[in-house]
Specification:
Immunoglobulin-like, 3 domains, ten-stranded antiparallel sheet, 3 helices, 20% helix, 39% strand
């Protein structure tokens, strides 16, 4: 009888020790799994992007982690909050992007985690605008044509420069509050001849109305061009650029650093313009996108 009691006590102690060991091992394994296979929080403002529009991708990461995002064969610049725990970037589809489904690669560094998502680019019909302009502004003589080619080359070089480090933070502002008198993306017919689509938006405003910088950035071009008149281009870094055309005056200088909301110019009607207005253009990763849609979608970055 005593021998049996002794064995039961041993058996109880063994079970107790084994249970504790198994629990400890489980906790340890859960910790290893959590560290090795932690998943980021990923949000998209939309996974369907129309031609000439964009979406926001937002990642929640742990301290010490950084994202690598690629879409349409380009790296997407991701901008962190002050704590470096939330990162945001723009996915942009050019005005003439081929409709279809495209993979989006998201990696978390330095860890091994990565995942591919599917984003859809949808066709969008933006209509036609018909303009009547003075003949000399449309049918160019040889000297003017040469000037236009030189100016286009200068603008092209500015817009194709390698991306600088992101300077922008938070949502993008509309530079003026005005009625839309020329919608983004419309096919253009000038004096009954088809022309390139309208790659910006025209905002009606009185002569001399202050024009605000959409976000923090660096002035990369101040010029007076035949078509765009007195022109200003701001590089916001992270492959985001904004353009302000037909100005009456520019109030900043080449290479100046500007702040979001800073007055950078005054509305005018210089260049090929039929009256005072601001032509506002935006490029994101070289894609021509609707500037006003950028102001709307960027608001989602400030939402939890």
């Amino acid at each position: 009888m005593e021998e049996k009691i002794h064995n039961r006590e041993e058996w109880g102690r063994w079970k107790s020790r084994t249970g504790i060991l198994l629990i400890a091992t489980g906790i340890l394994l859960l910790g290893i799994v959590d560290r090795a296979f932690s998943f980021p929080r990923i949000q998209f403002s939309s996974q369907l992007i129309s031609q000439g529009e964009l979406a926001v991708v937002k990642l929640g990461l742990k301290e010490g982690e950084t994202p690598l995002v690629r879409w349409l064969d380009r790296e997407v610049s991701m901008v962190p909050n002050d704590q470096k725990t939330t990162w945001c970037g723009f996915l942009a589809a050019d005005l003439k992007a081929e409709p279809g489904r495209y993979p989006l690669l998201v990696k978390v560094l330095p860890g091994p985690w990565e995942q591919t998502f599917e984003m859809t680019v949808a066709k969008k019909d933006r209509g036609v605008r018909r303009l009547k302009l003075p003949k000399e502004k449309v049918d160019l003589d040889a000297a003017t044509l040469e000037r236009v080619k030189t100016e286009a080359a200068v603008m092209g070089e500015v817009l194709s420069a390698p991306p600088a480090s992101p300077l922008w933070r938070g949502r993008f502002l509309s530079p003026v509050e005005g009625e839309i008198v020329g919608s983004f993306g419309q096919a253009s017919v000038i004096n009954d001849s088809p022309r390139s689509p309208h790659s910006g938006v025209d905002l009606k405003a009185s002569l001399g109305t202050p024009v605000l910088a959409m976000n923090h950035g660096k002035v990369v071009l101040v010029a007076d061009q035949f078509f765009t008149g007195i022109s200003l281009v701001i590089d916001h870094g992270g492959a985001v650029q904004s353009m302000y055309f037909h100005l009456d005056k520019v109030l900043v200088n080449q290479d100046d650093q500007v702040k979001k909301g800073q007055v950078v110019g005054l509305v005018g009607s210089t260049g090929r313009a039929s009256g005072p207005h601001l032509h506002l253009g935006v490029r994101v990763n070289s894609a021509r996108v609707d500037p006003l849609q950028l102001t709307l979608v960027s608001e989602t970055m400030e939402q939890p």
